[in-house]
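For the sake of transparency, this paper describes our internal protein records without simplification. The remainder of this section carries one protein's record, kept here as part of the documentation:
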Amino acid sequence: MILISAWKRGIAALGLIALGTAASAQERVEIDFWDMVWGPAVYSEVGARLVDEFNTSQDRITVTYRPIAWTNWYETYLTAIASGSAPDLSTGAGFQAVQLYDQGAIRPVDDLIEKLRANGTLDDFGSVALEAAQFDGHYVGLPWAMAARAWFYRKDLLAEAGIEPPETWEEMRTAAKAVTNGDIYGLVIPGDTAGMHHIFATTINNGGGLFDEDRKPAMTSQRNVEALEFLAGFAEDGSLHPASVGLSYGDARSAMQRGQAAFILAQPNFIDEAGDAGEDIGLLPPPKGYHGDIGTVFWSLQLMVYEQTEHPEETLEFLEWWSGNMEPLFSEGLARVVPARISHQQAPYTAGNENIQKVLDLYVPNARIIGAQAPGTFPELNEIEGDGFLVSIIQRVMQGEDPAKLAEEVQEHLEEVMN
């Protein structure tokens, strides 16, 4: 505790002021909660308010809330763990919990899961989110949200071309060709990290995935090669935005909002963040792959408890409370993800948002994490997502390289990572 206190003083000296209530430190158990910033500034304000509500609801635990920016977020956690000053619990990236668990830094939440199962609360969590939190026979975290990817289209561009929203990949490619004219293109794909999400989403959409059910790399399967061929087809047809390789996700999003592209793969609240342009944008039901399959990629976001906590029981008590009372983070905090709990999905804000409901109803039930078709999660997925290799692959797909050969390169890379 001396080391942790010293670390807190250092943070304060740097001007990084934690939010929350700090009361009766000598009488109450102190819990540190680090929460990534999942939305605009108001998100963290709502988070701090909820922590205050918990602190005043009882007289045994004081939780300190600290928002964590995404800039250098991974180094922030690794440094804290190495220095013995990790938080008691936190949110984090999609595979943060399983990777840090594999390093011995995360405490499984199996006891809480069993408690929730016994009292019936576990039924409130979606099965896809729960499955993605499992590794090595344990739950490495408690799901709180899902970050799915869905297809969106410009209603005005398709209407001007006399085209109905496509229902299949073939129709989508045809529609993209039909609207391409001048500085308007059928599809925009960013050349950054968000670009590789197209590999995840389309392989799953076509009934494939990076891995098979035995957790062995399977990128060279017919279904996966077909997915790369589907993406390459837009470039071949001349309907891919020519600047795509050099665009960031923000650039691609702006191009879509300006009406310079007819289709984009984006986060569930894409229309809500499009401003006035949102009136001309629609959510496309999952298009069928070449064999009639539908699906997409999603990330199961988890609340995780750290092995360094000196108060595991109190931390789990707060975790249970937070999980049940966090709905305002979506309705007031405008989190850019969708709730994992069914009751929060049915709350007025989310239930009243037609597009988010379509994502929950049409996309999420068929969504898989990037390890599909392998069940559960595993630590190597963090490296696969973070080492940049697949970013280079999507760039080369857009530049017209042979999809089959690129699939072989991905296969070799996956085998290296797994070995």
Q: What stands out?
A: The longest strand covers residues 296-306. The mean pLDDT is 92. Residues 41-57 form the longest helix (17 residues).
